[in-house]
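Bug #77: duplicate submission created two jobs. Keeping one. Sequence:
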Amino acid sequence: MNKLFLAAALAFAGLAATAQTQPGGGHSNRHGDEMAAGEVRRVNKEQGKITLRHGEIKALDMPAMTMVFEVRDPKLLDAVKPGDKVRFRVVKEPNGAYVVTDIQPAP
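Kept job's structure:
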């Protein structure tokens, strides 16, 4: 029984390590550290959402598109308006939602 448990634990550890290092898997996918470039299309402070037209986000394996994102801290929306060029950081939550965690004016 102990050998079976050990084998299962080692297999799980290997899968976890693979998910963290391969594109599209685990840690590297859910916690993209790159700042993406985008343009604010719409701000919905009531729902805590922002619509951004953005370029490719490699860390999330996401092509350029326009999409609605949830915002982790609704206060981030106070500093942006439609038409603003921005740099932003987005993560993929375990539930599949894409959430903006930081947004700044583009240089």
